[in-house]
Amino acid sequence: MITLHAVSQVSGLSPHHLQETFKRFVGLSPKAFCDARRIARFKQHLRAGQSISDACYAAGYGSSRALYEKARKGLGMTPDTYRRGGKGIYICYAITESALGNALVARTEQGVCTVLLGEDDPVLIRELRQEFPAAVLRHKSSAKWKDMKSCHDVDPLLSKFPLSLQCRIFLARIWNHLQ
């Protein structure tokens, strides 16, 4: 695992200065960004058919205990329920405009389960159904998530980053904001 101290040595910045600079550019602490990316990688491994244990270690969790401490908040359900396509879970979703296209935010009673970006609402809904084929999906008003636009207010230099990285950062910020 890469630590803040290790990155600070490579960058020549103190750990504190590195963290503050990262937070100014990205809008999240390095830890919050890494936590969001780790959950995303874990979900990718499960969707690829890996076991929970294999996906856990492949995503960078040091133990299954570490995964389960983060899973309910990061997945909105247990890892096993996620692996089974959300079977037995009710998922409410809303679509709202964002600086990088339309954002679909879906959540269960336990928390946010996915955030998707795209231009076409039907495509976003299809992606949601593909991720959670066994769940009951319900469309809800996006009024309470309108403040997501603030998730894109970051340092202007971020716009110089590749679009794929901008999207990852934006998704991590939304995830963190809604948690």
Number of domains: 1
Average of pLDDT: 85
Tally of DSSP β-strands: 4
Distance between the termini: 24 Å
Silhouette? globular
Classification by helices and strands: alpha+beta
Helix-strand topology string: HHHHHHEEEHEH
- Radius of gyration from the CA trace? 17 Å
Number of helical segments?
8
- Strand order in space, largest sheet: 3-2-1-4
Are there runs of 5+ residues with pLDDT below 50, and where? none
Largest sheet: 4 strands, mixed
Helix content: 40-55%
> What percentage of amino acids are in beta strands?
15-25%
What distinguishing features does this structure have?
50% helix; single chain; globular; alpha+beta; 8 helices; 179 residues; 4 strands; 4-stranded mixed β-sheet
Descriptive account of the structure:
There is one protein chain. This protein has 179 residues and is α+β, with helices and mostly antiparallel strands. The chain has one domain. It is built from eight helices and four strands. A four-stranded mixed sheet has the order 3-2-1-4, sandwiched between helices. β1 (90-98) and β2 (101-108) form a beta hairpin. α1 (4-11) packs across α2. The longest helix has 18 residues, at 30-47. The relative contact order is 0.14. The model has no long low-confidence stretch (mean pLDDT 85).
